[in-house]
Amino acid sequence: MDEVRSLFDDASERVAVPPADLGAVVRRGEARRRRRIAGRAASLIVVALAGSAAGLILAGQEGSPLPATRDEAPEPGGRLVPVVMSGPSPWPELAAAEDLAAARAVTVAFHALLDSATRYRFDYRGVEEVGGRWRVEFVEHGSLPPVLRELARARAHRTTQEAQVAANRAELAAHARRIRTALEEALGTDREPELRRSHRSVGEEVRRLERVAAQTAAEIEEIESRIRSFRRRQPSYRVFVTVAEAGGRVFVEDVTTASPNPSIPDAIGYAERAADVDSWGADYFRLAFRRPDGRPDGVYVFVRPFWTGPLSSPYEERCRAQVTGPGGEAVWTQPEPHRLTPFTSAPASEDARDGGQLRFGFDYEGTVSDLSLRMLCEWRPRQ
Amino acid sequence: MEASLATAGVRTDFADFYRAELPQVYRGVYLLTGDRQAALDLTQEAFARAYARWRRLSREEWAGGWVMTTALNLAKHRVRETASPRLPEGAPAAAPAPERVDLVRALRTLPFRQRQALVLHYVGDLHPRAIAQAMNVSEGTVKAHLAQGRAALRRKLEVFDG
């Protein structure tokens, strides 16, 4: 051990240390400090994702430890940062929080899920710094909103039907009373058979309406049963998004579903290229999908550009995805480059967003977490 | 400069801290990257981050270790981004001691966590407990990294045989 130390000592002593440049450090540090203050202010905008724009707003904890970025050494003690988000896109507010890594991590993770949020609901559960990365946890409510919409329609239908049945029954009852009165008056006359047939038909109509109401109620019960069944599965249906930072860029590193049976179409929606606030498009991000037991589950990539530059940018971006293995070897290369359509941080039309998406998938038998995705992009003047 | 620091509300002892820790941090990063320019840039970035959080760091005994670890974490990304690792600039021309080049070469073949632990221990002079805190792992893991790193260095350098 002493010999190792002497080797290090010797090597260290032979490294010529450049002169101290406190001015450069302070200038750089001041810039960071200003962003940090902005980040602290932004932390007060901590918002809640409650599945709707009218989400819960929680105040940030002033004086709580500011989380480190991925490159910064974690401070002893660890922490669970209370960052909750709300609204369709809190990104503009949090984009300035460069040093507020937790908030940014949640934002990035949120954006990774945003596309699916139109069909699915994610309840934010927490963000935790684990081994220098931010692990953001959501609970996915899957296809609950469509089911709820279906239930709402069914309930409305039931209300209409029940009201109609009630009205019809009242009308038919009144009609039956009139027939009965007429029948009593017509007993022994030629009109008696006809009035009796009318009375039976009224009874049949009442029974028919009751059958319709019962059928509607059965349909509603079936839908409610599906919802109850879905809700019973909720505790195991979780999504973990790991967010990392490198070279000043934040990217989604890993998306893992804890669902017992994550569906491929759902998984595709989880991953997208994370926001890169400093430039037009990160070169790459690493993405891995695993089953809860750690087995690979194929590779699915979903790319959506997040442009912070002006919409009137004179450039267009064309990217070709390439997946490389642990040794850097190409595993899969996208045959043709894909033009990514920019959109702003303002709500974009579905068409525009779809135009900016790049999806692909392929089979891979190895360890998916070893894969890297590289986006080979080029920018050309817009035609 | 001092006025700037005072204006910023940051304690002026940052300057003393910076001057005291600079050599160790720079040397540690240089041993990992073998690139003077990168070492200078990463060292400066690590100190800039320390400056930005100096109010809190200045109260901590592990401030030096924090800067060292942060610099090494930054170096990790720089190493990853560099397609082909470079040996120390000017090494052949400067005819450095063979053991220095060998050490740098041998270090660069080790997993980063082992390298990080070795440099924090031997260059940063941190106790395994402090390294564990800085690396956010258990002390046992750090000791394992150190033991494995030393063993690997022995094999690679072949200077400890016998």
What does this structure look like?
The complex is a heterodimer of chains A (383) and B (162). With 383 residues, chain A is α+β, with helices and mostly antiparallel strands. Chain A contains 8 helices and 13 strands. In chain A, β4 and β5 (249-257) form a beta hairpin. Chain A is rod-shaped, with a radius of gyration of 31 Å. Chain B is 75% helix and 0% strand. Chain B contains 10 helices and no strands. Chain B has helices at 2-7, 13-33, 36-52, 54-57, 63-81, 91-94, 98-108, 112-123, 128-135, 139-157. In chain B, 49% of the residues are buried. Residues 1-10 and 83-99 of chain B have low confidence and may be disordered. At the A-B interface, α1 and α2 of A face α2, α3, α5, α7 and α8 of B.
Number of helices of chain A: 8
User: Based on DSSP secondary structure assignment, what is the total number of beta strands of chain A?
Assistant: 13
Poorly predicted runs of chain A: 38-100, 114-120, 233-237, 259-292, 296-313, 341-359
Strand content of chain A: 15-25%
| Number of DSSP-assigned strands of chain B | 0
Rg estimate of chain B, integer Å: 17 Å
Q: Could you report the average pLDDT of chain A, rounded to the nearest whole number? A: 55
- Based on CA inertia axes, which overall geometry of chain A fits? rod-shaped
Largest inter-chain interface?
Answer: A-B, 42 and 57 residues
Judged by helices, strands and strand pairing, the structural class of chain A is alpha+beta
Helical content of chain A (DSSP H or I, runs of 4+): 25-40%
Mean pLDDT of chain B: 73
Shape of chain B: globular
**Beta-strand percentage of chain B?**
under 5%
Please identify the structural class of chain B as seen in this structure: mainly alpha
> How can the largest sheet of chain A be summarized?
6 strands, mixed
Secondary-structure element series of chain B: HHHHHHHHHH
Oligomer: heterodimer
